[in-house]
Amino acid sequence: MRPSFTIGIEEEYQTVDPTTRDLRSHIHAEVIAKGKMILEERVKPEMHQSVVEVGTGICKNIKEAKAEVTGLRRDMVRLARENGLRLASAATHPFADWRVQEIYPDERYHTIVEDMQLVARANLIFGLHVHIGIEDRETAIQIMNAARYFIPHILALSTNSPFWLGMNTGLKSYRCKVFDKFPRTNIPDYFPSWGEYENFINLLIKTGCIDNAKKIWWDMRPHPFFPTLEYRICDVPMRVDETICIAALFQAITYKLWTLYSKNMGWRLYRRMLLNENKARAARFGIGGKLIDFGKGEEVPYTDLLEELLAFVDDVVDELGSRDAVYYARTIVAGGTGADRQLKVYEETNDLKKVVDYIISETEHGVI
Predict the structure, then answer these.
(1) For 35-59, what is each residue's pLDDT tens digit?
(2) For the chain, does the N or the C end have fewer beta carbons within 10 angstroms?
(3) Distance of alpha carbon 199 from its chain centroid, rounded?
(4) Is 267's pLDDT higher than 70?
(5) Comparing C-alpha atoms, which of 28, 181, 171, 147 is closest to residue 91?
(6) Whole-angstrom distance, CA of residue 240 vs CA of residue 214
(7) Which of 171, 168, 134 is nearest to 155 (CA)?
């Protein structure tokens, strides 16, 4: 059966004090409660009180997804402003201190903090998750095995977290390094079948490692409750157009790999250890470095690999109606990722508050 290849997008935003430019809790402003009145279940809290997550419904195509993401951002930007806050879309805050951030009063989050202590409290990061509809679970696990190769390529394009605790970390995605401290993260292993994956999950549950598969926090996973393949590796980008480009790329990669799978063809599978080498390079250098072409056994400039990726999916993007969104990747490369642009503002101003102002303005670009 042909998968639906529907799209669902989740973005995590910062709530910022417009005077100090530091993170500020949204609880007293009742942003979540007021947001639910407008957006119902499409807005929800995250573990820290300065994080707001929004999620689209099930979108049939990238055009529908863009309309929903734009509408959600517009509503949340306005709601934040009406309640004395600003909305910022970046994967770390340039100078906020996680040690003074409060945990959202929810039993699930308090359980996570109890389990992981300082690791959980320090996890003040903001991500982008993209769900692509694949209804058959065996198909989903086989597509995941192949798609693992490409996710460092997309991470590089999304990088948007160069600062941490007021310091230039030297990495384009420091968020990756913060999240790596959690258990059950990073690029997943290869699973020969859905049955083997289920056995793995059941063993973790039986031995008390997890209580359900939602505590599998890999960079991609079969969603435990929805019939989707969920890509979780990316920093949340600043602009809506960047988010939509990344979602369109994930959809196109998924669809192209399925066309191969449906013809009993496939993509070469690589060990997790090798793939994590590319992830580390993507987090460190973003689009400005080199990734490894394991087939050739050599380093290749990121821009060359991106062009190879665009050529790989070119024959499916028109059917998906996503050509413009997918090829926006070239625009990102030309102008720099969010991390590149944050660093440029800091080099020009030497002022992290100016960087926050820039992030806020980019978050609102094309929205209001």
Answers:
(1) 666 676 677 656 667 888 999 999 9
(2) N
(3) 27
(4) yes
(5) 171
(6) 27
(7) 171
Burial class of residue 76, CB neighbours in 10 A (0-12, 13-18, 19+): buried
- Alpha-carbon distance 254 to 317, whole Å? 11
In degrees rounded to 5, what are phi and psi of residue 84?
75, 25
pTM over 0.85: yes
How big is the chain, counted in residues? 368
Q: How confident is the model at residue 298 (pLDDT cuts 50, 70, 90)?
A: very high
Q: In angstroms, rounded to a whole number, what is the distance separating the alpha carbons of residues 133 and 124? A: 29
CB of 253 closer than 8 Å to CB of 153: no
Given a contact cutoff of 8 angstroms between Cβ atoms, the answer to whether 220 and 188 are in contact is yes
The vertex-249 CA angle with 246 and 254, nearest 5°, equals: 130
Distance, CA of 240 to CA of 225 (rounded, Å): 27
Q: Which residues of 14-50 are buried (b: 16+ CB within 10 A; e: fewer)?
A: bbbeeeebbbbbbbebebbeebeeebeebbbbbbbbb
Average pLDDT, the chain: 92
Two tokens, residue 37: 């009145």
